[in-house]
Design a protein that fits this description.
Number of helices of chain A: 11
Radius of gyration of chain B: 23 Å
Helix content of chain A: 25-40%
Shape of chain B: globular
Order of helices and strands of chain B: HHEHHHEEEEEEEEH
Number of strands of chain A: 22
Largest interface: A-B, 89 and 62 residues
Strand order of the largest sheet of chain B: 5-4-1-8
Number of domains of chain A: 2
Strand content of chain A: 25-35%
Strand content of chain B: 15-25%
Oligomer: heterodimer
Number of strands of chain B: 9
Number of domains of chain B: 1
Mean pLDDT of chain B: 83
Largest sheet of chain B: 4 strands, antiparallel
Chain lengths: 391, 205
């Protein structure tokens, strides 16, 4: 695993415009950065990332199976009681999921360690599935990268195929897509998924989350009053479950992608549950619920813990606890639902940057990686996206 | 361990289909027209009739199919046509006397009249059909054009023969009356008051 400099393609910003990649610069800072790339060996990809990703996914599903029918655990996960039935039903029916992203600490030498599972609303999908793919094609064509260079990135192919499976499962030929207003990144991610669904032969309709309506008959509707029978939503279940239309998300019988059982996976309580079920697994970090201090203290060799809210995204509200006192923390709006503790493991440093690996799953299949860098050891939402190759 | 013979990246991304914007220079027009004709592959012939009689007159041998498809299209139109709370709103979009009442769970709302129905795959035992609408309103961008229930424009309504993609016959979402909006999104409004996160970044992870 190497970080290597490379010249940016001369026309990349024009291409970004042509292909609709509108969020390559955010808050005045570069988000997409092609002045360098990461190089992995095939063995690093297959042995250290691809296999663990699929294995951890199966372990996660075992946790879902356990939690979905256990009221005490559902409480620990801070899932509102009104949704327990729907979660159990959705899991029982094996409603199809589309994708997830596992975030790993990985340095190229030691086993990758799971930081969290973004199972409900992962982003950085377009830049992973298409944009870095195009970057590689262009640089191979320009003789800047070896003709033998490959990339761990079968995302787009797998997403298209998965949409075909989901369309068959529900017997549909159209699908609604939804995300929040005022965010180029989310809208871009959803547009990419619409493109993939179209390639799979589906007709697609878009509606903003805030514009969704409720009909006389209790169905959800778009702005044309079309009934939303099935919907991909880039909007967290834990938000929906605490909002006015939440109960209607279930009562309306809308087929959701991701399905509601993913509430269990996108929750940080997953991490102590994984440790409880698979303690000592090489790709897991010790993790405990906040009321389980005794177990934490028993791990006497671990001096540094990360305190994470059950519900949080992109490094918000994360505290690092060192020898019993806070040493570094990040602000944010999360935390009211409770916390978990996870053993701290430093992100590897390449040059001046801390590096985080996102490993993609389409349903249960590993589908590629994304590399993000940050100047801070806690990955925040202003991290930079770097392309990668396998050589 | 596998060998390098198996590629780890997507092999068949159609780059041209991923484009969102085109910036053709004048010299490239020839290329553009070649690309356009290449894109028209996979289309099929469809015919639009204004009603069952027009269909039967044109195709006396297929009278039964004309009738069955017409009935099916009418039922589909009731389900999927745009709906309006007032006749005025409907006529604004579709023109004077172009709307009818529709009974939605006991309340009356308004929808445009079906202006015709499109039939495809006529020789098969079960031809496809799709209800078609047109607007006579000078306020509508679709004036005198065929359109499907979900608002897709199929061009000049004086034409009865159309060349369409097979997906033109796909089932459309049912349309109903919305009584309330804005029941999702409050968490984002609450959390957006925090920090500098204003635009660009989303709520995915």
């Amino acid at each position: 695993m190497l970080r290597l400099p490379i010249g940016a393609r001369k026309n990349w910003q024009q291409m970004a415009h042509d292909y609709g990649f509108h969020f390559h610069t955010m808050h005045g800072q570069a988000y997409w950065d092609e002045t360098a790339y990461y190089q992995f060996t095939l063995e690093q990809v297959e042995r250290d990332l691809e296999s663990p990703t699929e294995e951890i996914h199966q372990m996660c599903l075992q946790v879902v199976d356990k939690v979905a029918k256990n009221e005490e655990l559902l409480k620990k996960f801070a899932i509102p009681e009104g949704y327990w039935g729907a979660i159990a039903d959705s899991w029982q029916a094996q409603e199809p999921s589309l994708y997830s992203r596992l975030d790993f600490v990985y340095d190229g030498r030691t086993p990758a360690k799971l930081l969290e599972n973004n199972a409900d609303t992962p982003t950085s999908l377009y830049e992973s599935g298409f944009w870095q793919w195009l970057w590689l094609e262009n640089n191979v064509d320009n003789n800047k990268l070896s003709k033998r260079a490959d990339q761990f990135n079968s995302l787009q192919e797998k997403l298209v195929n998965r949409f075909k499976v989901i369309a068959d499962y529900y017997g549909i030929n159209y699908l609604h897509f939804a995300c929040c207003k005022d965010t180029d990144e989310d809208r871009g991610t959803v547009q990419y998924l619409q493109d993939c669904a179209k390639e799979a032969g589906l007709d697609v309709y878009f509606v903003y989350i805030e514009d969704i309506g409720l009909s006389e008959g209790g169905e959800l509707t778009d702005l044309k009053n079309q009934i939303i029978s099935h919907c991909f939503k880039l909007y967290p279940w834990e938000f929906m479950q605490r909002e006015e239309f939440g109960p209607h998300a279930v009562k309306s019988n809308t087929g959701w992608i991701e399905p509601i059982w993913k509430t269990i996976l996108s929750n940080k309580a997953l991490l102590p549950m994984l440790w409880r079920e698979f303690e000592g697994h090489p790709n897991l970090l010790p993790a405990f619920f906040e009321n389980d201090m005794a177990s934490m203290q028993a791990q006497s060799d671990i001096k540094k813990w990360v305190k994470k809210p059950l519900y949080s995204r992109e490094g918000a509200n994360i505290d690092i606890l060192e020898n019993g006192k806070m040493s570094l923390s990040s602000d944010g709006p999360y935390g009211e639902e409770g916390f978990i503790y996870q053993a701290h493991t430093p992100l590897p440093k390449f040059g001046d940057s801390y590096t985080l690996i996102g490993s993609w799953l389409v349903d249960g299949e590993a589908a590629g990686i994304s590399v993000r860098e940050d100047e801070s050891p806690i990955t925040q939402d202003l991290s930079r996206y770097m392309p990668h190759i396998i050589l | 361990m596998e060998t390098n013979s198996k590629q780890k990246r997507s092999s068949n991304i159609d780059i041209s289909r991923m484009r969102k914007a085109f910036s053709f220079k004048p010299l490239a027009i020839g290329v553009a027209s070649i690309m356009l004709s290449a894109c028209s592959g996979g289309r099929e012939e469809a015919v639009v009739f204004k009603n069952a009689d027009e269909c039967k007159n044109a195709l006396p041998d297929l009278a039964q199919k004309c009738e069955t498809a017409y009935e099916g299209a009418l039922a589909e139109a009731a389900k999927t046509a745009p709906k309006y709370n007032t006749r005025n709103d409907c006529e604004y979009e579709f023109g004077t006397n172009q709307c009818q009442t529709y009974n939605n769970n006991g309340s009356s709302i308004f929808m445009p009249l079906m202006a015709g129905y499109m039939i495809g795959n006529l020789l098969s035992p079960r031809p496809y059909y799709q209800p078609m609408f047109t607007s006579y309103s000078r306020y509508s961008p679709h004036r005198n054009n065929w359109m499907s229930a979900d608002g897709r424009d199929f061009g000049d309504s004086r034409k009865s023969k159309l060349s369409v993609k097979p997906s033109a016959f796909d089932k459309k979402p049912a349309v109903t009356r919305t009584i309330k909006r804005g029941g999702f999104g409050s968490s984002v409004r609450a959390k957006s008051s925090w920090g500098s996160r204003s635009s660009g970044k989303g709520w995915g992870g």
